[in-house]
Amino acid sequence: xxxxxxxxxxxxxxxxxxxxxxxxxxxxxxxxxxxxxxxxxxxxxxxxxxxxxxxxxxxxxxxxxxxxxxxxxxxxxxxxxxxxxxxxxxxxxxxxxxxxxxxxxxxxxxxxxxxxxxxxxxxxxxxxxxxxxxxxxxxxxxxxxxxxxxxxxxxxxxxxxxxxxxxxxxxxxxxxxxxxxxxxxxxxxxxxxxxxxxxxxxxxxxxxxxxxxxxxxxxxxxxxxxxxxxxxxxxxxxxxxxxxxxxxxxxxxxxxxxxxxxxxxxxxxxxxxxxxxxxxxxxxxxxxxxxxxxxxxxxxxxxxxxxxxxxxxxxxxxxxxxxxxxxxxxxxxxxxxxxxxxxxxxxxxxxxxxxxxxxxxxxxxxxxxxxxxxxxxxx
Length: 379
Ligand code: KG4
Ligand code: ZN
Fold this sequence. Notes:
Layout: E1 2-6, E2 11-17, E3 24-31, H1 43-64, H2 67-70, E4 73-79, H3 83-100, E5 104-108, H4 109-115, E6 127-132, E7 137-144, E8 147-153, H5 159-169, H6 177-185, H7 211-228, H8 232-240, H9 254-261, H10 269-297, E9 304-308, H11 315-327, E10 331-333, H12 345-356
Parallel strand pairs: 1-4, 4-5, 6-9, 9-10
Antiparallel strand pairs: 1-2, 2-3, 6-7, 7-8
Helix pairs in contact: 1-3, 4-12, 5-7, 5-10, 6-10, 7-10, 10-11
């Protein structure tokens, strides 16, 4: 088996994957909640939490498996991500590698996401990938290990980051994506006008930009606050409409309560969320259309589209991408819901393929890289 470790942001995770069948044998993950009220991940806090959580997962694992007998290699997510947190995972992985006398494998976290639809599936198939996470938004021609060509990427904020920033403006907790999705789904009236980024800018047909949209949201919120001064009661009511739905159990979920009772005073959070999400999705779809066209022009027919990363859990986004894919006869590949966000199972799945190819690192030379520089290939 191969043991894999993930600690690139705020999830600590360890997995065991069979080297023979590539099946996932074990996966445990702890997501930090210390950042919820802070608007984003604080690296120092996250690093301390990994030091606690990775050890507690390992302790549980050691109680269930004989690592000395069963583990033949260690894989660890080393780039990109937060250096301070990547180092926690690397320290654990490197120590295990030396103590067990097995090789260490350095895995690109983004390739991990691209592999996430192939967890428990031994056959990686070449495809085009849309990676939408908190750290990245990119289009990749994923032909195989060592052959992952970046076709386009965000020029500024990532899609997940823009969801998180809009959530923050609406006084919702981090990570804000699921809250915005929920609020947006509750709004069925007209949408506010939002900008359509990079529509006519030459050379950027496959790139993304979300910062203009974020600023438009900021202005819309400010406008609503100004107009609503003096009409406090109306506002409170418009922000309360979600607290009426009590879900299957009859009690309000934590999310219902947060959305119902929170929300920026004076702002119609659902209208803002829905308008933002619609524009964000329209931008995604326009990039995908451009990619299908430009790949076609290069003689690469897009037959499969992988949609991966934390934001791929969003049902509205999935719906829009599925509709586009259907129109073009493209098969979509999604990770299981629980493997959309960061996890060690995807790192293990890449690790097994790297093991087969003998792609090992030196225990004394392996290191972490926080940010990928301007790159065109994922390695
Ligand atoms: O892939 P991920 O777990 O971490 C990174 O590698 O960055 O992605 C986390 C991001 C966060 O920005 C979070 O708000 C977003 O994924 N996210 C969502 C949803 N669930 C998570 N965004 C929109 N809709 C969702 N349902
Ligand atoms: Zn990730």
